[in-house]
């Protein structure tokens, strides 16, 4: 994966500001944020799958909104944008239209996870 690809996955300015945020007082802050994101996101992706299976557009919208926020906080704007589209589809009751977006979000999460792991190295 080249650097231009990483830049589309993560806003490196946000990553740098999060790394600096902890400063000397909490040097592990960024690692902690990444760890929480990596712990929570698979469950949220699973919850989106379950909402799709149940045809529950409200639950789909809710989960996508929560994931969108956590993606944005870490600068993972490409994944946040997918979540925004899923949230919008859910709000509109378009469960079928959200299916391919949810599948794309799983692939995108794996790419974001890899990029975040590289930032921790």
From TrEMBL:
The keyword Transferase applies. Keywords: Kinase, Phosphoprotein, Transferase. Residues 26-119 form the HPt domain. It comes from the Bacteria. Pfam families: Hpt (PF01627). One of its GO terms (molecular function) is histidine phosphotransfer kinase activity. The modification Phosphohistidine is found at residue 65. InterPro entries: AHP1-5/YPD1 (IPR045871), HPT_dom_sf (IPR036641), Sig_transdc_His_kin_Hpt_dom (IPR008207). GO terms for biological process: phosphorelay signal transduction system. GO terms for cellular component: cytoplasm. This is Hybrid sensory histidine kinase TorS. It comes from Engelhardtia mirabilis.
């Amino acid at each position: 994966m080249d650097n231009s690809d990483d830049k589309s996955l993560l806003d490196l300015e946000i990553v740098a500001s999060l790394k600096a945020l902890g400063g000397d007082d909490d040097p592990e802050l960024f690692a902690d944020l990444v760890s929480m994101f990596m712990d929570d996101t698979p469950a949220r992706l699973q919850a989106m799958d379950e909402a799709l299976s149940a045809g529950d557009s409200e639950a789909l919208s809710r989960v996508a909104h929560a994931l969108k926020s956590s993606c944005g906080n870490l600068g993972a704007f490409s994944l946040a944008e997918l979540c925004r589209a899923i949230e919008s589809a859910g709000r509109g009751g378009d469960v079928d239209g959200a299916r391919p977006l949810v599948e794309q979000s799983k692939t995108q999460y794996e790419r974001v996870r890899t990029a975040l792991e590289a930032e921790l190295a």
